[in-house]
Amino acid sequence: MDTGRALARDKFHLQSVEYAAACPACGAAARWVAAHLLWSGRPRWDTEYSCAACGSAAAICGVTPDDALRERLLAANGSTTLRVPASAHRASVMRVLRAVLGLGLAEVREALERALAGRLTGTRPEMEQLARALRRAGVAAETR
Ligand SMILES: [Zn+2]
Asked: Which one, of 78, 136, 139, lies nearest residue 112 by Cα?
């Protein structure tokens, strides 16, 4: 990995995964790469493919990942854990979790317990988005 790429990975919390899936043009097995990053403070997914069978290739930016793609990325990169100090102001944490994750009241209580127990995990851009929002709300959150 060259230095420029390493810096970009760090700055945007970039994660990527390569996989085989059908070519949209001819249906043969094509090589796909998905990149997941924190862009303007929000998690974003881009994909690109190239097909050896028909020669087509394209980049598709700003896609909505399906569960399979997200699982594939997590399997390739490992999951990231959000750390919230036990002394954190509960209502502030819940407000941020609700706003960022769009959770209902029951779900947000469960997410709060998981965050306090160090069991709230996801992709690095997802957890970094939460940690940043929490720090803006005065909570010393970290990712690991
Ligand atoms: Zn093709």
From this structure: 139
